[in-house]
Amino acid sequence: MHELAVGLNEALKGTCAYDLLSDYGLRMYVPKGIIVQSAEAKQKATRFNATIGVALENGSAMYIPAMKAEFAPDMKVGEIFPYAPMGGLPGLRKKWKEDMYAKNPLLEGKSISLPIVASGLTNSLSLVCSLFLEIGGDVVLPDMYWENYNLILDEQRQANKILFPLFKGEGFNCEGLDQALESAEDCVMVILNFPNNPTGYTPTDSETDAIAAVLKKHADAGKKIVLVTDDAYFGLFFDDEPCHQSIFAKTCDLSENILAIKCDAATKEEMVWGFRIAFITYGSKNFSEAQYDALMQKTMGAIRGSLSNCSMPAQNILLKGMADPNHGADKALGVKKIGERYFALKKALKRHSSESFLKALPFNSGYFMLFWCACDAEKLRTVLMDEYQTGVIRCDEHHIRLAFSSVDAEKIEDLIDTVYTAASKLV
Ligand SMILES: Cc1ncc(COP(=O)(O)O)c(C=O)c1O
Questions:
Q1: Given Cys at both, which of 62, 118, 222, 346 links 124, Cβ 3.0 to 4.6 Å?
Q2: Does the beta carbon of 121 lie inside 6 Å of ligand 1?
């Protein structure tokens, strides 16, 4: 093992993070080679700097004017073309962390790491799983999850998925989580995604407390838990039913046996799907700054060895956009528009509440809702597509997913009537 990895592991010894790191995670470190020597040269090599692999002209990046012309005139060359700093732009990381505290008042007084920039939330999840989920290791998650998890959990990590039914009645199935954890090995990953894809469900405040209590019970009994919160759709709350704070805020100081990792992203929160900017933030009870630093170093090592670097122009545009005085109001307007679709959907579903061949599962947030259908879901999907020119996603044999986020509010009623009409012909 590299001596730098050994040093980071020394710093983490005695914490749950040390026990939870995968073999790959234990071996990760940030090399002191090119990156560190270049940073040193930036300070001292005032005569010639022949360190970094970019083309420079009079000290700044060379560029093709046609490329520069595509950006706003106030974007500087240095904000577009060079590599971004390791871990992400310091200003963006600071701003994301400040906003995280503002959006999650429960975080007040709690110590967490600085967020690290990853290239989209998919990349965050892949990185975190490579670092903390041993090949073949146990991972607990609800049975309704984003399909793309399979490529990470099954194909990359060959994980042992311990699934539990997401719902018990109309609410979150805390008992299911408890039983799943009971059956898991002593070091286990838990992945919770709220607002959930595909159901659009976020637990209520009391359900979130109950989830935290279940995690603490198992941690107190000696289990080491790495809790990954996939907060992709954070902030898309339209009424008071769902808990408006990330479960990370309730768990990042819960136990010395729990390492909470918040995976969130600008992708949906800032409506910049193609920017590929996400964040990884760590929180654990009694963690020191040196220990957070060791985890960040390992994460940056994993980024260095896979992507090398995240998009510089996307980070700068995001940071500038978030600092704009109109940003807050404009963002709220976008959420309000999606909320109008949500309320139109709730209203449209009421008109069909007596029909038993198609039932909406509980939903209260995010982009999506899920229908259980008595008929074959693939048949319903193809009939909707071929006969009604309507696209939905088939999730499994008896569930179809609707993204209400992508249909204008005035078309929602028609969409729901269409889905019911098509389904009625298949029963
Ligand atoms: C639950 C969930 N997590 C993660 C992602 C990935 O987000 P990104 O586009 O930032 O990779 C998505 C995207 O659809 C998602 O639905």
A1: 118
A2: yes
Give the amino acid at 196. Answer: N
Query: What is the domain count for the chain?
Result: 2
Give tens-digit pLDDT for 192-203: 999 999 999 999
297-321 pLDDT tens trace: 999 999 999 999 999 999 999 999 9
- For ligand 1, is residue 153 a contact (CB within 6 Å)? no
Report field, pTM of the whole predicted structure over 0.70 = yes
Report residues of the chain scoring pLDDT below 70: none
Q: Which atom of ligand 1 is nearest to the CA of 197?
A: 1
Q: What percent of the chain has pLDDT over 90?
A: 93
Whether the Cβ atoms of residue 357 and residue 373 lie closer than 8 Å to each other: yes
d(CA 355, CA 239): 26
Residue where one domain finishes, among candidates 290, 323, 356: 323
In a domain, 75, yes or no: no
Gyration radius of the chain over CA positions: 23
**Residue 42 counted as domain residue:** no
Selection from 241, 266, 271 nearest residue 334 by Cα: 271
